Amino acid sequence: MRVIAGTAKGRTIEAPAGLDTRPVTDKIRQSLFNIWQFDIPGSRFLDLFSGSGSMGIEALSRGASRAVMVEKRKDAADIIRKNLNSLGLMKNAVVLQEDVFDAVKRLERKGEKFDTIYLDPPYTVDEIFEPVMELMGQTELLDPEGVLVIRTRKEKEMKDRYGNLEKYREKVYGISRAHFYRMAQPEDSGTQE
Q1: Domain 26-183 is classified in which CATH homologous superfamily?
Q2: Residue 191: its pLDDT value, please?
Q3: Can you tell me the mean pLDDT for 65-79?
Q4: How far is residue 178's CA from residue 143's CA, in Å, rounded to a whole number?
Q5: Residue 81 to residue 151: CA distance in whole angstroms
Q6: For 2-53, what is each residue's pLDDT tens digit?
Q7: Number of Cβ within a 10 Å radius of residue 101
Q8: By the 8 A CB rule, do 128 and 122 touch?
Q9: DSSP secondary structure, the chain, as one string
């Protein structure tokens, strides 16, 4: 797996062994970063269920000012740190080796804000998708102008609304589906003429 663009373009990223992490394919990563390309420079990026850290690393390579990567597994978190150090991107990165639910609550308490939030929960733990989105919809972690994307199996349906988050787009990539959310706009109380 390689970094697609930016300061670390073409450099190799190591991935954890085993089937517990599913690195984001280059095609999906390329497509998402094409959508986000003008928003990434100078942005704050949150990568939840980070795995190899490829999404946060790609964001940093493309000029994100900060990336927080959350991964519970020690072996995977160690590989993320190793990747960041070998690519010279550690100074703008934070790697949290902890449960995503705990990390989200802690980041919220600290008043953190992110322009882009990417979630890639394990497909094998289907019961995690709804609770994590319910939690995200109760937080203020996403900047009002930001975007949150959660990757699921292609067949998985996600609700149009979770708390203060509303879905505005979906995109299918092979066996995966990306669900795009933003902060819900207040209901327009004016009448249309």
Answers
A1: Vaccinia Virus protein VP39 (3.40.50.150)
A2: 45
A3: 96
A4: 19
A5: 23
A6: 888 888 887 888 887 754 545 667 788 899 999 998 999 999 999 999 998 9
A7: 15
A8: yes
A9: -B--SSTTTT-B----SSSS--PPPHHHHHHHHHHHTTT-TT-EEEEES-TT-HHHHHHHHTT-SEEEEE---HHHHHHHHHHHHHHT-GGGEEEE-S-HHHHHHHHHHTT--EEEEEE---TT-GGGHHHHHHHHHH---EEEEEEEEEEEETT----SEETTEEEEEEEEETTEEEEEEEEPPPP--SPP-
Locus of tokens 């994307």: 149
Claim: this prediction has a pTM higher than 0.85: yes
Residues 6+ apart with CB under 8 A from 40: 33, 59, 62, 63, 64, 116
Residues 129-158: tens digit of each pLDDT? 999 999 999 999 999 999 999 999 999 999
Contact between 15 and 46 (Cβ < 8 Å): no
Distance (Å, whole) CA 108 – CA 99 = 14
Give mean pLDDT, residues 159-181.
95
Rounded CA separation 130/34 (Å): 27
Q: What is the DSSP string of 34-85?
A: HHHTTT-TT-EEEEES-TT-HHHHHHHHTT-SEEEEE---HHHHHHHHHHHH
State the amino acid at position 113 in one-letter form. K
Q: Residue written as tokens 């639910």?
A: 101
Axis-axis angle for helices 54-61, 74-87 (nearest 10): 20
